TrEMBL record:
It comes from the Bacteria. Residues 6-122 form the VOC domain. Pfam families: Glyoxalase_6. It comes from Leptospira dzoumogneensis. This is VOC family protein. SUPFAM superfamilies: Glyoxalase/Bleomycin resistance protein/Dihydroxybiphenyl dioxygenase.
Length: 126
């Protein structure tokens, strides 16, 4: 079974998310949107668009609970339910909540350092 196939997103917290997002937009040219983040579209080696994006977002960090970390990484997976089952069998701390929406299927596991790791199975074709 394949496990992680790529990075779907990078999320981090800030004392003032709007101000920090504005800094990244002004000084690094990241196209920060009103929702607090940006989507980096994937391209191949020739610069042609391919299916996939990597999200980048700054927020207040409340989404990271129960982790106390200031960041969370979202990893792309092909079979979320299968991977969560294997992780449980391996003794990992898998959070019970799984979310399914038009954006895909999301699940979470805590790493040994207490960081919440988001696992994401994108919708078919993405």
């Amino acid at each position: 079974m394949k496990r992680v196939t790529g990075i779907g997103g990078i999320f981090f917290s800030a004392k003032d998310p709007a101000k920090l997002g504005s800094w990244y937009k002004t000084h690094l040219g990241i196209d920060v949107q009103s929702w607090g983040g940006a989507a980096f579209r994937w391209v191949d080696s020739a610069g042609n668009p391919t299916n996939g994006t990597t999200a980048w977002s700054v927020g207040d960090g409340s989404y990271f609970a129960p982790s106390k970390s200031t960041f969370m990484i979202n990893y792309r997976v092909e079979d979320l339910h299968g991977l969560l089952k294997v992780l449980r069998e391996e003794g990992c701390q898998v959070l019970e909540k799984v979310e399914e929406s038009e954006y895909g299927i999301f699940g979470w596991v805590m790493d040994p350092e207490g960081n919440k790791v988001e696992l994401w199975q994108p919708p078919a074709g993405q």
